[in-house]
Structures are given as C-alpha cells and as structure tokens.
Amino acid sequence: MAIPSAALEAGTGSAAAAGTVAVVAPDNECRYAAALVCQGWQPVAVDLAPRLRPPAASTTPDAPGYAHRLEHTGSLKHTVKSLRELEVSAVVAGSAAGIPLAERVARTLRLTGADPDASLLRHDRGAQAATLEQTGLPALRSVRTTSLAEALTWAENHRLPAYMLAPAAAGVPVEPVVCEHEVQISATWPSMRREAAHHSGDEHLVVAEYLSGRRYLVNSVTRVVDGQADHVVTDVWAETRASSGRLARTDLLSRHQLLTRALHMYVLRVLDALGVVCGPVTSRIAYAADRGPVLLSAVALPDTSPADRALREATGHDRLAAALDVVIPPAPGQLISAPTGHRVTRVHLHPRLSGRIDPWTARILRGLPTVAAVSPDLQATAPAAPPARTEVVLSSSEPDAIEGDYRIIRALERECLYLAAADAPHRFERPT
C-alpha cells in the first residue's frame, strides 16, 4: 500500500480569507500564523515528516492557528499538489529547517523566491563565509567540515590568535566556543558536533578566526521592485556581553549613527552576495577596528522577540507584517501611532540556583517604570522554570531611566529572582 507523501489534516479556516499562505516547518517560536490571520489570510502548516526533522524537533510543534496541516514526507511533487489544492499563493519558512524546502516549493509553484540550488547561503555560516570571500567582501577566514583532522590541519596552517568553533547551521540554539589552540578544538569538537546534529540534523562544523570586536544584530527585509531585489535594513542592535561571555543586553541603535550606517551599507552588499531575493534576514555582524564589519552568520528568518511591540512603537516598524508584506498584498491601511523614538533595551537573564523564578520578585520586576514587556516565564503566578531565553524589555525616552532599571533588574537577579533549593532558607521574607 502506497503512503501519500503529503497527508492533509483539516482544521478551522476562514472562508472569507484573502488567500492562503504555506508556512514550511514552523517551530514553536514561529509567529506567522497569528500574523497572517490578522491580515485576513489563511495559514497552512507544512510539517516535516519525523525522519526529515532534526532530532531536537522529533515531535510536531504545538503551533496553533493553522487552518490546515500537511506533512511533507520527501516527495516535492505530492506536497506541491496538496498545496495547489489549497490554492496556496505564497510560501514562507517557519524555521531554519524549513528554508530549503520553502525555496523549492516556491520555485515549483512559480512564486518569487531565492535559488533553491544555493539554499545553504541563506542558513549556513560556512557557505556564507566562502561566498563572501569569493566576492571580495570582508569575511571570516574559515573551514566548513565534518572532519576533525581537516579542521586541525586548517588551524595549524593559519596559526591565528584564537579560533571560533560553531555549527555550520545558523539559527540553532548552540553558542559558538572560542578556542585558543588546536587542543581546545579537539576537546570541544565531539560535543559541538553532537549538538549541531541534534538541533539541525547536520554534523558540519565551522572553524573560523575569532574576532574580538563587538557584535551587532542587523534585521532586514527584501522585496522585488521592478524585477530587482530591494533590500531595506529595518533595525540594528548592539550586543553587550558579561565577563563570562554570556549575552547581557541588546540595545537598539539610532539609525543616524555613523556605525549604524556602516553596518547598513555592508549588509546590503552581503544580501546581494547571498542571493537574497525576498523576505526577512537576520544577520549577526562583528565589527573589528582594523577590518570594519564582518558577517558571522545570517539566516533568512525574522528575529521575533518580546521586544517586537516596543520596536514597533519606537520606530513604526512591525517585524512580522513587514516580512509578510513582501509575499502577500499589504493589509488595508490602519492607523499607526507616530514613532516615539524611544530607546529600547533587551535585558537577557540567566537562571541560577534551582533555575525557578520567584513570582513575588518577578512582580516587582514587572512593575519597574521602563519595563515594556517580559518573556512568559516572568508572568507566571507560580514558581516557573524559565526556558533557554528569558528577557525583560525596557523602553523609554530617558536613557538614565533605562540604566537605573537595568541596575535594579541585575540586583534582583543576583539576590532573589531565582528560588534556592527547597532545603535552603530564602534571604527575604515574603508577605503573607
């Protein structure tokens, strides 16, 4: 008995929808479904069959809001047939794992999209560095390989002050590791390779030169105008790390700063080199004093976060709406408040002790004057175990107000935000 390659599962859809959009391999962080419904479109999820998913995504994401779900089991022909039956007129990737299939589906449906034969350029840092070097743009010296011997040979031949070891796949929750010599590369290699395979299904790693400059996050959207790709940088953020190397805060930069303009111009050239034709791209850039901006990685996905609303109020830019407007007609005009021009800071928290958040302290944190948003674990009324990323968003026209609340948040995190073990006394009494 033949098993169909795309099994359709009906859901609740809207008969009056303006059209249907396929979201390929949406994960639990994908927010396209709600955004599409808000714009009057019907979202359809294309889930990868279990054998095609990375081990970390072994179960179907719990992503509500889709009118239909279908499963891609390997046959592009059958998946496209199912999408045609649903009258799909646009395709977007719902995760890094969905980028290659989304580009193949878009081409088969004769929709605007990037070249699927060069899909690695939109989600693989090794392929990106090699392409930028070939085109003459500033790029990391690096090697992409699954062979430790090849990686060690490359490191020995280059003799750099320090190296960065990372998964080749961009957009996976695995932090790069800085290695000072080949011995550290050898020691870190097995665990890094396991983590890369677990989260991306790809065992390729990248050994690259380590640049000590500050890191920046650059978000962009590309649309086709008169047959040409038109790139627009929407927002630029500066990362600050603690002495331990952990990400401490991310600050929205003014578009009028000279540094912002330099990053802007560099990213426009990078997007052309990576073959970006339409849609969002999140780029991570290092700025070295002697070389200027250098791409660390790029992934063709929107960088959604709890700061999205504060970003929209500060700049007038709606990240998800902008990402969708390049593949579907924009929603009817709505009244949008004038941008406030506020400063926005994302404060990144790192659990200690038991890792469980004390709801009493979290309530104090939420009440600080500049707090604009918090991640869901900081809204719980019972002790909550935070996910991998916990953050607080600060927004204000007064820089000193943001800095004052930032110091308070760090004091709360240090002293009482996380509950101690059950047998350890708490340092503060709770009101009864």
TrEMBL record:
Record key words, sorted: ATP-binding, Ligase, Nucleotide-binding
InterPro entries xrefs: ATP-dep_AA_Ligase, ATP-grasp
Classification via SUPFAM superfamilies: Glutathione synthetase ATP-binding domain-like
UniProt KW 4Fe-4S keyword: no
Keyword Nucleotide-binding assigned: yes
GO MF term (any one): ligase activity
Domain ATP-grasp: 129-328
Designated name of the protein: Predicted protein
